[in-house]
Design goal:
mainly alpha, Ferritin, globular, binds fe (ii) ion
Length: 129
C-alpha cells in the first residue's frame, strides 16, 4: 500500500484502489485501536472502556457493510466515526498526560493512534473530493 502511494505521488496522483480496500484497512485499524485501548484501560475506567467497546463495534460494522452500501454512505459513516474516535483519542491522550486516567497506555502510544486517526481523516477527505 505504501509503495503504491509513493508511486502515485511521484506521478502526482492519488492511488486508484478499490474503495473498500482502503476503507476496510483503516476501519479495521480503528477497530483494533479501540479494542486494545479497552484492554489497556484499568477496569475502574468503566465509561471509557464502554466507549472503546462501542467504537470497536462501530468500526467492525463498517467493515461488514462496505461491500453492500453506497460509496457516499460509507464515506459519510466512516468520516463521522473517525472524527468521533479521533476526539476520544485526543481527550484520552490529554487525560493520560495529566494522570487523570487509570491505564497502562503509554502517552506516546495514545498520541500515535491519534495521529493514525488524523491520517485516516485526511485520506477520507481526499476520497470525498
Ligand atoms: Fe500504528
Amino acid at each position: 500500500m505504501y509503495i503504491e502511494l509513493l508511486d502515485a505521488l511521484i506521478d502526482k496522483e492519488f492511488p486508484d484502489e478499490p474503495l473498500c480496500d482502503t476503507l476496510d484497512f483503516w476501519n479495521q485499524t480503528m477497530a483494533g485501536h479501540a479494542e486494545f485501548i479497552d484492554g489497556l484501560l484499568d477496569p475502574s475506567e468503566e465509561e471509557l472502556k464502554s466507549m472503546a467497546q462501542k467504537f470497536t463495534r462501530i468500526f467492525e460494522n463498517l467493515v461488514d457493510d462496505c461491500n453492500r452500501c453506497s460509496r457516499r454512505h460509507m464515506l459519510e459513516k466512516s468520516t463521522r466515526a473517525t472524527r468521533n474516535i479521533a476526539e476520544f483519542k485526543r481527550a484520552a491522550t490529554v487525560g493520560l498526560l495529566e494522570c487523570e486516567i487509570e491505564s497502562i497506555i503509554p502517552p506516546l502510544l495514545a498520541d500515535h493512534v491519534l495521529r493514525e486517526a488524523n491520517q485516516y481523516l485526511r485520506i477520507l477527505q481526499e476520497l470525498r473530493i
